[in-house]
Design a protein that fits this description.
With 112 residues, the chain is α+β, with helices and mostly antiparallel strands. It is built from two helices and six strands, in the order E-H-E-E-E-E-H-E. A hairpin with a 2-residue loop joins strand 3 and strand 4. Helix 1 runs antiparallel to helix 2. It is elongated. This is Nitrogen regulatory protein P-II.
Amino acid sequence: MKKVEAIIKPFKLDDVRESLAEIGITGMTVSEVKGFGRQKGHTELYRGAEYMVDFLPKVKIELVIQDELLERAIDVIVDTARTGKIGDGKIFVTDVERVIRIRTGEENEEAV
């Protein structure tokens, strides 16, 4: 199993969620996060004063999926979240050794 963490622009969340559901991925965790990469933030004007916004709002989607769904999930996220502009986000993939469903005690694929 793999854990996929995708950092995307907030307005793309619904589209990505719907696209993942179409390929059979329904369980996910979503968090509102802030950060920056090459964008390095931007300046804004407030009451006539210019100030720097270092951390930009993003959304982090976390999925734990079976190995055979990995490439399709990545393709869906990339195709759906891409705007072609800086700040589209990143995807991180890590191995998951063990999953346990607390309620039933089921493990691994049965727990996902």
